Amino acid sequence: MTKNEFDQLYQEGSYEALAPYKVDNAVIMAAGLSSRFAPLSDTTPKPLLRVKGEIMIERQIRQLQEAGISEIYLVVGYKKEMFSYLSDKYGVHLLENPDFAVRNNNSSIYAARHILGNSYICSSDNYFMENVFEPYVYRSYYAASYAKGTTGEYCLTTDINGLITDVSVGGSDSWYMMGHVYWNREFSSRFVEFLEAEYDLPETKQMYWENIYMKHIRQLPLYIRRYPEGIVREFDSLKELCQFDPSYIPYLEKLIHEEE
Question: pLDDT by residue (tens digit) across 201-219?
Fold first, then answer.
């Protein structure tokens, strides 16, 4: 099916014909230590911080559910017991990542590998200014934002059809990986094969899942999905959070004072 045919069927509401493209589930990675958010994260994991009046991970769960995606899995590790209320409140499923403290985020994908299909893969510290999720998706993609000037992010090179052909760490005036990912069943199956084959290798331990994808980029077709500036937000530090939500400025000022 071509993209134009997909779009036409979607607009017509011909969902039976679009069954192979229906999203099965979403995985939200929420296992990390959030060490760059200390001392806040010493007591509250970053996904459970309240940002502009909403708990970050709850906002993301609601957006997924509003898009018709009811099968949602949270991969937890650090202070996992603090996430348990979400099962009762939203009906989400919790998956434990026992390796969260000693491995990078590839361990969260590994913990969810048996349920991956037509799946959204989300980071719990992403904040979407509008709902970016859909119940039917045409092809596997990585969300991207544009960086003017120099950036240290994972920058993307694509062909004329939007297929990602290369990823480099750092670049200038470039589209870069930012936000959620969508994997179709074929992509999920292939990625899990590579992950399982390489999981116990010493060099895999500290890799992001994106680095594993980069190693096998020719066998794992992933397309860019461009978003306007400001739609997808990510808070990598307390300073970035303060710029978005000034209510956290006192925490940053206290931290700076203690370090002086």
Answer: 999 999 999 999 999 999 9
